[in-house]
Design goal:
Elements (H helix, E strand, L loop, with lengths): L7 E4 L6 E6 L14 E5 L6 E3 L6 E5 L17 E8 L7 E8 L1 H16 L4 H26 L3 H21 L7 H5 L2
Antiparallel strand pairs: 1-2, 2-5, 3-4, 3-6, 6-7
Length: 187
C-alpha cells in the first residue's frame, strides 16, 4: 500500500484570467478516500481564501474564486507571488505548501513587444539592439520566476519591475523609422 504524499502543481494556462492547480498527490487508497480536501490560496495583495479542491484532478482558479472580483466576473489575475496550501484532515499533519511567481501579464507585454519588433521595418542595427533588449528582459522575467518560486520575494519583485520598466521604455522608444530608413540613408 502506498503512503500519503501530498503534491500540487501549477501548470501554465497561457491565459491571464485563470490558473490551473493539479493534484499530483499519491494516496494510499485507489480511488482515494480523502476527508475534507481544501486549498487555501493567497494572491498578491489579497487575503487568503479557501477554494473548492477536486482530488486527482485539474482545478481552475479565476479571479472570482480567489475573492479578487465578485462572483461571475473574471478579470486578469494579478502578477506576483501566490502561496498555495493544500490540506486534508487533519490539516496539521497532512498538507503541502508551495509558492509560485505568476508573470502572465508581464509575459503578455513581452509577447506584444516581440511581435511589434518582428513587424517593424527598422534598420539592422536598431533591430539587433531590440533583440538584445528583449533577450535581457526575458532573462529578467525568468529570474523573477526562479526567485519567486524559491521564496526570494524581494529579488523576485525587483527583477519583475526591472523587466516591466525595460519593456515600457522599449515600447515607448519604438524605432522611430518608417521602413524607408535604409533607402534614405543607404541609396
Amino acid at each position: 500500500m502506498a503512503s500519503l504524499n501530498l503534491k500540487i502543481i501549477v501548470i501554465p494556462t497561457y491565459d491571464i484570467t485563470s490558473m490551473i492547480v493539479v493534484d499530483a498527490s499519491a494516496y494510499p487508497n485507489t480511488p482515494p478516500v480523502v476527508s475534507n480536501p481544501f486549498l487555501v490560496v493567497e494572491s498578491p495583495g489579497f487575503n487568503p481564501v479557501s477554494v473548492p479542491f477536486n482530488v486527482q484532478s485539474f482545478n481552475i482558479l479565476t479571479s472570482d474564486l480567489l475573492g479578487i472580483t465578485e462572483a461571475g466576473l473574471h478579470q486578469p489575475l494579478p502578477d506576483g507571488i501566490y502561496r498555495l496550501n493544500y490540506s486534508i484532515d487533519p490539516p496539521q499533519t497532512n498538507h503541502v505548501q508551495i509558492s509560485i511567481m505568476r508573470v502572465d501579464r508581464l509575459q503578455e507585454k513581452w509577447d506584444n513587444a516581440f511581435m511589434s519588433l518582428d513587424m517593424m521595418e527598422c534598420d539592422m542595427a536598431i533591430k539587433t539592439q531590440a533583440k538584445v533588449d528583449l533577450n535581457t528582459i526575458y532573462l529578467l522575467i525568468q529570474g523573477s520566476i526562479a526567485a519567486g518560486n524559491n521564496c526570494a520575494d524581494i529579488e523576485a519583485y525587483k527583477l519583475y519591475h526591472k523587466a516591466s520598466n525595460m519593456l515600457d521604455s522599449m515600447m515607448k522608444k519604438n524605432c522611430g523609422c518608417s521602413g524607408n530608413n535604409y533607402m534614405v540613408n543607404f541609396p
